[in-house]
Amino acid sequence: MIKIENNKKFDLEERTFEFARKVRNFVKTLSKTLSNFEDSKQVVRSSGSVGANYIEENESLSKKDFIMRIKISRKEAKESRYWLKLLDTQDNPAHGKEKQVLIQESSELMNILGTILRKVEYKNEF
After folding, report:
1. CB-based contacts of 89: which residues, under 8 Å, 6+ apart?
2. What was the pLDDT predicted at 111?
3. DSSP H helical ranges for the chain
């Protein structure tokens, strides 16, 4: 569990799971264009990989393994943001708003994972 400023705790494993679940629910509602079909497949994969790699990093056997997994998890969050931006939501303004929420969440996950990475790399924590 990670503690945030307002003394609330959040479980990053649960948060990454919810991100992947919300992405999957979102792409089900999009118009069925060829580009949306292809981009949806990519974003579904990358959004699920954020949490899968986070789980792996928590089970890592060494600091080097932990760092590699967290870098992959952060990379997948960044990739998810990229694919989300490519999805076509012009036919429905509500889809555009939901897409922005998911893009924001992917950015926040990138920042959280980046902070964890910097702490481990530069403060020699593990």
Report:
1. 30, 95, 96, 98, 99
2. 97
3. 12-28, 34-58, 63-86, 93-122
Q: Which amino acid is at 21?
A: R
Tokens describing residue 33 = 């264009």
Whole-number Å distance between alpha carbons of 23 and 40: 9
Q: How far is 124 from 20, CA to CA, in rounded Å?
A: 31
**Tally of domains in the chain:** 1
Instruction: Name the 3-class secondary structure at 72.
Output: helix
Closest to 15 (Cα-Cα) out of 110, 85, 96: 110
Prediction pTM value: 0.86
Q: Which CATH number is 116's domain given?
A: 1.20.1440.60
Q: Do residues 54 and 73 lie in contact, with contact meaning Cβ atoms separated by under 8 Å? A: yes
Which residue, 12, 107, 28, 20, is CA-closest to 69?
Answer: 12
Domain around 58:
35-122
